[in-house]
Amino acid sequence: MLKFTLGQVAQMLGGTVEGNPDAEVFTIAKIQEAQAGSIAFLANPKYEPYIYTTQATAVIVNQDFEPKQPLQTNLIRVKDAYLAFTQLLEQYQRLRQQAQQGIAPNAHIEESAQLGEGVYIGPFVYIGKNVRIGKQVKIYPHTFIGDNVSIDDHTVIYAGVKIYEGCVIGKHCVIHAGAVIGSEGFGFAPQEDGSYRPIPQVGIVHVEDHVRVGANTTIDRATLGKTLIKQGAKLDNLIQVAHNVTIGKHTVIAAQTGIAGSTEVGSYCMVGGQVGFVGHIKIADKTIIGAQSGILDSITEEGTKWQGSPAMPMSQYYRVQAVLRKLPELWRKLSK
């Protein structure tokens, strides 16, 4: 069990303690559910009533927070309570993961594989030939790492992940359970008899540093070259990324989105859930795409917002929806 005094927590977050700096906390909780020994946070004023009844040992608040009733808890005052709580969660998770080291006796590791210092290899993990695993990498049970894969320092691979041969994973990445990296791209050549002949997919997937891949997301290997997920991109659960796709730096994509082959999504984009992209198009940097949109053409202007299927500029989409709601009334008038 990890224990910290409030003084240590405040120092970690660059804040100050209002109360007992020697009080100890060992878990993190919601303010409305917290018990003794836990630390919570208050950033949204809607939750302020809970701070007067919470059993938490401490609550992280903004520096300008002024209680309207007596408090039964200690406070840690910081510049931005929401950001500070995020930093605390990151540190808590990092410390828990650092405690996990060693190689399970029933993991299978080929002799030619290279393992860095402080790695954790869980039960029933398979690591193929000529694999390179960096320092402090954590690989959880039932994961498959194919031949010639490279995984850089401090990356976490959760249970049941499959990383096919030759793929490259950067530093400080997180790949969640069930994700498949480097599966065969969906490429087939039509034949005269109406059948389809598979086109060999001999490229790789390259995931750069600080990328997060959600549970059961699939990223296909390239036909030639590489499918590329650039630094800092965040992919939600249940996303399909096809062969030779490029996803730009710090782009975030929500669940159930599908991106067809050879499409290039720019940097700093925001993509809602269930969005579909056709293949061989380009999406400009800082584009925002609403949920369930269908992207049929390239978007060339940076910083624009799109919605609908087929997608249109978001302002136009809202005008269209306003007219659609009036259609039944307009039809009745037209019928008369």
Automatic annotation (TrEMBL):
Residues annotated as catalytic: 243 (proton acceptor)
UniProt keyword list: Acyltransferase, Lipid A biosynthesis, Lipid biosynthesis, Lipid metabolism, Repeat, Transferase
EC top class, as a word: transferase
A GO cellular component annotation in the UniProt record: membrane
Gene Ontology terms, MF aspect: N-acyltransferase activity; UDP-3-O-[(3R)-3-hydroxyacyl]-glucosamine N-acyltransferase activity
UniProt keyword annotation of Glycosyltransferase present: no
Annotated UDP-3-O-[3-hydroxymyristoyl] glucosamine N-acyltransferase non-repeat region domain residues: 22-90
Residue spans crossing the bilayer: none
Domain Mannose-1-phosphate guanyltransferase C-terminal: 104-184
The protein's name: UDP-3-O-acylglucosamine N-acyltransferase
Organism of derivation: Thermonema lapsum
